[in-house]
Amino acid sequence: MIKNYFFVSLLIFVFQSGFSQTEKTLKGKVMFDNFLLQNVDVINKTTQKSTTTDIKGEFVLSAKVNDSIIFYRKEYYLKGIQLSPNDIATNKISVSMVKKPEELEEIIIRQIPNIDWKLDTKWEQVKRDEITAERTENRLKNTRIDDLSIDKGLNLARIGKTIFKLLVKETSGDKAPQIEFKQLARSSCDEKFYLENLKLKPDEIDLFLQFCDADPKSKTLLENNNILSMMDFLYAKNIEFKKL
Length: 244
What we know:
By secondary structure, this protein is of the alpha+beta class.
């Protein structure tokens, strides 16, 4: 009886072991808020095989139990899962991604000053100039052909100058183009750092940097570039990346 029990247990173990080590064709779909996502890169990090979701958000990829699958699309946060025996058995998984917040360009708001027409001396002078100009226009005078003067010219110049000083404020230069995190990380640390220190494979480096870029902390490094801070950040993200 004991021998039979041992034999059955051994068969189950061998079956499960063989099942977990055999690649299967995994089917699935990727969504965001119940919307199917097209052009999502689906990468088997374990086997380095990859595919892309179709117009229906569906994909087919060879995989086995415990393989790490990564889902990437630029506008969304990187998503990683580890396949369970149930995922392989059902042969159908559904993955939800989270969209990154949209980054808005800097908006400059200028406050238009409240003008007290009765108390503001500059605007009081403008009003006086306008009244004087109107009175001058209404006067009867003899106009000569060679008289090229304009009665209101000087007054209009003063009015325009006053408005310009009160309402216009020049902004300093155009905004300098911002370097991408991936480019900054590669220029800060050479390939040897990624291969020997972080123990990454050559074809994992780009994927790893995409994983880092999905972290909001990477934007802080773009604003304050410091090689030591960059290395600390990459070490910390590498630990998370290895767990995928």
